[in-house]
Specification:
The chain has 310 residues and is α+β, with helices and mostly antiparallel strands. The protein contains 8 helices and 16 strands. The chain has helices at 19-33, 46-59, 70-80, 97-101, 109-122, 154-162, 171-181, 242-248, and strands at residues 6-11, 37-40, 63-68, 87-91, 127-136, 144-146, 149-151, 188-194, 199-204, 206-210, 232-237, 263-268, 270-275, 285-287, 290-293, 297-309. It has a 6-stranded antiparallel sheet. A hairpin with a 2-residue loop joins strand 14 (285-287) and strand 15.
Length: 310
Amino acid sequence: MSAPLRLGVVVNPTAGLGRGGRRGAAFLEVARRRGHTVLDLSGPDAPTAVRRARQAVVDGLDALVVVGGDGMVHLGAGVVAGTDLPLGVVPAGSGNDIARVNGLPTHDPAAALSVMERALGDGADGVRALDAVSVGPPGYAQRDWYLGVLSCGVDAAVNARANTLTWPRGTARYVRALLTELRTFRPYGYRLTLDDGTTWESTGTLVAVANAPHFGGGMRIAPDARMDDGLLDVLVAGPLSRTQLLTVFPRVFSGGHVDHPACTVLRSRSVLVEPSALGPTPPVAYADGERLGPLPLLAEVVPGAVRLLV
């Protein structure tokens, strides 16, 4: 039995078509039964939950725990990034990409709690320092954080479309959304600037700024990305026709799309993504499946900014 912990918990009850609420209730129950002090910081909406979580951080916690999918990990990362407070994850979404990349048990609140107890008991050996990405419009002080992938192309349009669908689950939802988006798709115009001044300007189909290798429930968008190497893997896909896109898209599940001649992977500590007059304006960007806003956006990796309990 580990020493009693003081845990702040934020639950997304709608994650995984309602699984989040059930997993959250189970986690709260088992944590209290094991003698831990548990503060339920969940709110009626994300801003309220964030405000409560930040106040609890000030008041003192052993860890902030989020229950849900990658969107909840995104919320938690935004609260703890740049602090010493560890982040615990109880995966209960439909994708759970960040949890899977880091070997966390999915849909098992008791096992997730055991991971946290061992990690906090082991000290530094149970905490994995992950890079996080600070992102926002260039020149603005207001920043967001993400751990997974920033989507700026047809992948963002598909993400937005998939968020409106309740069926099917998992990656099949993204396939359905892609088929719908293809009806009106035209390659967008981009200008990318890396930290060494290198620029890439072209019409393009997809721009993904990846800190993690997976998104969308296991799609290997940047198969060689690592969450602790201090670098971003910037995947750019040049203009593809609808037929070519349908040919390339299935390869994303294995990571084989990066071998297509239209795809290039660039590596950088930062990247400025801007719209270009060479093509239509890119869609609103998403990170970790959450809406960020329109381009331009500056993404900068911050090594070891989030301490994940593993």
